[in-house]
Amino acid sequence: MKKKIVTFLMAAVLLLGALTGCQINTKKVEVVKLDPNNPIAITVWHYYNGAQQAAFEQLVSEFNATVGKEQGIYVEGKSQGSVSDLEQAVTDAIEGKVGAEDVPNIFASYSDLAYTALNTVGLADLTRYFTQDDINKYVEGYIREGYLNNGDALYLFPTAKSTEITMINETAWEPFAEQTGVTKDMLSTDEGIVEVAKKYYEWSGGKAFYHKGRDSMSNYFVIGMKQLGTEIFEVTGDGVKLNADKEKIRRLWDNWYVPTVKGWFAGYGRFRSDDVKTGDIIAYTGSSSSSMYFPDCVETAEGSESIDYDILNAPIFDGGENVKVQQGAGMAVTKSDTAHEYAACVFLKWFTETENNYKFVCESSYMPVTKESHSVTALDKALGDSNLEINPKAYDCLKVVISDDKGCEYYTTSAFANGMAARKVLDYNLSDKAKADLEEINAKVAAGRTREEAVAPYITDEAFDRWYEDFVSALNTRIGR
User: Fold this and answer.
1) What are the residues whose beta carbons fall under 8 Å from the beta carbon of 127, sequence distance 6 or more?
2) Taking the complete model, does pTM exceed 0.70, yes or no?
3) Residue ranges in the chain whose pLDDT is less than 70
4) What is the structure's pLDDT at 185?
5) pLDDT one-digit tens code per residue, 146-189
6) pLDDT tens digits, one per residue of 242-259
């Protein structure tokens, strides 16, 4: 009878794990007694700058003066510059290059870099220091990313996240919508954005409506395919499988490459907001963390015009699932001794408590990471209770994103060997082709061809087939197939 009960309970645990999509932590959690008179020093490398860095440093100081002082932990943060600068610094430290610093105790990391670190210097399994109740407090999609080997070891911890949103120059949109009958509901799908962009091109006399860059092209492929029911990189115990269903890839081609070469989508400046500010486009899909940088006016040769804005959820392919990208680096803890690993986890747990996390979120325009904090009520309470200030655009952005939480899945690809190289193919293969093809098309138009005539050879079935074969071959090469 006892055996039957044990078997039933084990089956229930396994079923619960399958239903939640996360591993169940049954490990004994380590609790280390530290000496406040001899505090342990913890170094944190990150990529925050400006207001984000100031907010992070303020929280570190607060931790050191309270919990850190009580328990014997002293945290020191260091910005390495940009995300790429941070990745290079961590890589150099891992490889022990001449002049490189020692690997820090904690470093901000995307899953691919964490995967590399795990298989070289080693990372701490955070389930040794977080109970299952602790882990269950975090948004499932965020925490799932940290199980790098799809096992029961958690190596990457969420501290602040972002997703994608669509922002519009409301002032330019209103007369266009009034005269053409388009609605913002049409912008909820990728196909609808293309339809609106075509109408805007015709209405405006040849101007682009939408920025071609998205937040990143790899997001467009990864999330687009997931919305259509397919993981483009399916990571299993045997490695990674490429799922490049031709019909689905064709939908991505038709709703990005085709409107780009036709001139309905465009991008000129370094940032998407640059092209809104110059009036070259009136809408884009970009990172929620960049919402505060949407311009307040349009600057042209004729002068400056103040503009209003609106924020919408990122588009979903028609008939697709409500899947959003979850991005923003988590924090990895370098494998060392139990005391340092424990101290690092005490800081991460404190940093992501609702009140503390919102202190960072309100300055950085990132999203909080616990389930409790993912509500407009929690946001307003944090602003009121802590007397926090937040950029109005960042506040409106958070309200839009958080309000859609219950109906969406936050997703990112699982880490795998050569994952960064594979994502580079997604980022540049089609966008580089579009750039080169546009130069040829524009030259033909300048020579007297109509744009329709110039574009025609580039958007045929045969043109797609040639690109598709090259695209799949490049991806297979990167993942070692």
Assistant:
1) 23, 25, 27, 29, 135, 152, 153, 154
2) yes
3) 1-28
4) 97
5) 998 777 899 999 999 999 999 999 999 999 999 999 999 999 99
6) 999 999 999 999 999 999
Place of tokens 């098309």: 441
**What pLDDT score does 22 carry?**
54
Q: Supply 347's token pair.
A: 């800081």
Output the 3-class SS for the chain. CHHHHHHHHHHHHHHHHHHHCCCCCCCCCCCCCCCCCCCEEEEEEECCCHHHHHHHHHHHHHHHHCHHHHHCEEEEEEECCCHHHHHHHHHHHHHCCCCCCCCCCEEEECHHHHHHHHCCCCECCHHHCCCHHHHHCECHHHHHCCCCCCCCCCCCECCCEECEEEEEEHHHHHHHHHHHCCCHHHHHEHHHHHHHHHHHHHHHCCCCCEECCCCCHHHHHHHHHHHCCCCCEEEECCEEEECCCHHHHHHHHHHHHHHHHCCCEECCCCCHHHHHHCCCCCEEEEEHHHHHHCCCEEEECCEEEECCEEEEECCECCCCCCEEECECCEEEEECCCHHHHHHHHHHHHHHCCHHHHHHHHHHHCCECCECCCCCHHHHHHHHHHCCCCCCHHHHHHHHHHHHCHHHCEEECCCCCCCHHHHHHHHHHHHHHHHHHHHHHHHHHHHCCCCHHHHHHHHCCHHHHHHHHHHHHHHHHHHCCC
Q: How many residues does the chain have?
A: 481
Q: What is the largest CA-CA distance in the chain?
A: 87
